[in-house]
TrEMBL record:
Lineage: Eukaryota, Metazoa, Chordata, Craniata, Vertebrata
Organism: Aythya fuligula
GO molecular function: G protein-coupled receptor activity; olfactory receptor activity
Pfam (any one): 7tm_4
Protein name: Olfactory receptor
Principal cellular location given in the protein's record: membrane
Keywords: Cell membrane, G-protein coupled receptor, Membrane, Olfaction, Receptor, Sensory transduction, Transducer, Transmembrane, Transmembrane helix
Function: Odorant receptor.
Residues covered by the G-protein coupled receptors family 1 profile domain: 39-288
InterPro entries from the UniProt entry: GPCR_Rhodpsn, GPCR_Rhodpsn_7TM, Olfact_rcpt, Olfactory_GPCR
GO CC annotation terms, alphabetical: plasma membrane
Family to which this protein belongs: Belongs to the G-protein coupled receptor 1 family.
Membrane topology annotation: Multi-pass membrane protein
Cell compartments where the protein resides: Cell membrane
Length: 312
């Protein structure tokens, strides 16, 4: 049985077979990547530079923007490089690093989205206790817990996956190194350990999802009882962007991992992977900037300040 050292590189699934389509995909994903960098970069700059946005909600939004940048930067640059240079190869170490960072950023982002649901729940349902429950120290601790749990989860999955011997070739049926696709190349029963880890992770994901749903049930009940229409509008304006981001994140992930095997195909899997790994990081800044008036005002001030500096 060949051991793990027999695989020195993996071959990723290309987006297209013809050179013209490869270059078209490169240009398309370059535009998406630059839009994600610009959108998330503007949010980071606005929250960091504007003292009016130094609130728990925007602190978690800053964390979300960082994770979005990390998530899309883990997968898309390599895929674009492969399309540009007409290659499929990724080194063994590069594949392991891609799995590590993608699982880290993806898991941490889901934890941050869960914490943001808790933040909105406390702000709307327990406003008198908001300062004590979601103070600066509590925010830092919750963010640290989200990043730490994501990193620990990523290390466990990566170490377990790449300790397997591979004897089923080196072609990964995805445009980036994805754990389920790599496990298919294993020739050892030890892959059951990774399946157990995946089941544990899915249980955690489901628990967070239930927490988010229950939080929003309480939030909407509290909002609908508000006597002031202005108060209801303000509450919805802070909650709906987060709910939209969660819906986009969860729905694309569910389609990717819970679709029936009978409808699975390399082309469909490729499209679904793009939906959950590329679309949310690029769309999140747009979703938040459309509904968050404080963020829109901060971005306008940032743009105005930059224009004024350039004129002087």
């Amino acid at each position: 049985m060949p051991n793990i050292s027999s695989v020195s590189e993996f071959l990723l699934l290309p987006f297209a077979d013809t050179r013209e389509l490869q270059l078209l995909h490169f240009a398309l994903f370059l535009g998406i990547y630059l839009a994600a960098l610009l959108g998330n970069g503007l949010i980071l700059s606005a929250v960091a530079c504007d003292h009016r946005l130094h609130t728990p909600m925007h602190f978690f939004l800053l964390n979300l923007a960082l994770l979005d940048l990390g998530c899309i930067s883990t997968t898309l640059p390599k895929a674009m490089a492969n399309a540009l240079w007409d290659t499929r190869a990724i080194s063994y170490q590069g594949c392991a690093a891609q799995v590590l960072f993608f699982v880290f950023f993806f898991g941490s982002e889901y934890s941050i989205l869960t914490i943001m649901a808790y933040d909105r729940y406390v702000a709307i349902c327990k406003p008198l206790h908001y300062g004590s429950l979601v103070g600066s120290r509590a925010c830092a601790q919750m963010a640290a817990a989200a990043w730490s749990s994501g990193f620990l989860n990523a290390v466990l999955h990566t170490a377990n996956t790449f300790s397997l011997p591979f004897c089923q070739g080196n072609s990964v049926d995805q445009f980036f190194c994805q754990i389920p696709q790599i496990i298919k190349l294993s020739c050892s029963d030890a892959y059951l350990q990774e399946v157990e880890l995946l089941v544990f992770s899915l249980s955690f994901v489901f628990g967070c999802f239930i927490f988010i749903v229950l939080s929003y049930v309480q939030i909407f009940r509290a909002v609908l009882r508000m006597p002031s229409e202005q108060g209801r509008h303000k509450a919805f304006s802070t909650c709906l962007p987060h709910l939209a981001v969660v819906s986009l994140f969860v729905s694309t992930g569910m389609v990717a991992y819970l679709k029936p095997p009978s409808i699975s195909s390399p082309s469909l899997d490729l499209v679904v992977a793009v939906l959950y790994s590329v679309v949310p990081p690029a769309m999140n800044p747009l979703i938040y900037s459309m509904k968050n008036q404080e963020l829109k005002d901060a971005l306008k001030r940032l743009m105005t300040a930059d224009v004024s500096k350039s004129k002087t």
